[in-house]
Amino acid sequence: MIFENRTAAARQLATALSEYRSKNPLVLAIPRGAVPMAKIIADELNGEFDVVLVRKLGAPGNPEFAVGSVDESGWVYVADYAERVGASKEYIKKEVARQLETIRQRRNEYTPVRPPIDPAGRIVIVVDDGLATGSTMISALHALRAKNPAELICAVPVAPPDTVEKVSDHADRVVCLSSPLNFQAVAQFYREFPQVTDEEVIALLSAERHPSTR
């Protein structure tokens, strides 16, 4: 399955998640690519929209290849293959510190005047534009599970079968529209896959009303 763009993928995900419409789900995006998608899904489901801040730990010499991830609390997930690709414990420690600083900067930029929306007791849907290793999604799900949601759902357009299986251990449900065996990168499953900028993220979050104003 090839998606025209993130908007088309988000609309298809919203259809797959239609049972949650009007149940006030909290739809959380993993920035930055998934942010416009989560906004569309939240609007379609009459829910709320926010971000969950996690960062991948990039491999030495190949920062796009995840060897793990870290969430906003500092919890670290390290993939079982990390050392085989050169990510020593010392390297991981430095990479964690670097990515935590990025998380802190993004929190200050993205939601400077309000705290994150509390997921406790809520149906929580975590959205990304696709999963490769699943590392960042695992960190996001771990961070949210600790906050006691009523139901925790991973929703993505595309991911390889082994990643879907791995992520399933951390969510109550995984909604994945396409799970191809021949998977090299998320971008190969989109005709249009532009970068989402921090400015776009900030604009979308600024437009989202705080729950107390709803």
From TrEMBL:
Highest rank taxon of the organism: Bacteria
Keywords carried by this UniProt record: Glycosyltransferase, Transferase
Pfam families with a match to the protein in the record? Pribosyltran (PF00156)
Record-annotated membrane-spanning stretches: none
Gene3D superfamilies in UniProt:
3.40.50.2020, PRTase-like
Q: Name all Phosphoribosyltransferase domain ranges.
A: 7-190
Q: Which residues form the signal peptide?
A: none
Q: Which molecular function terms from Gene Ontology are attached?
A: glycosyltransferase activity
Q: What is this protein called?
A: Predicted phosphoribosyltransferase
Source organism per entry reads: Nitrosovibrio tenuis
Provide the taxonomic classification: Bacteria, Pseudomonadati, Pseudomonadota, Betaproteobacteria, Nitrosomonadales
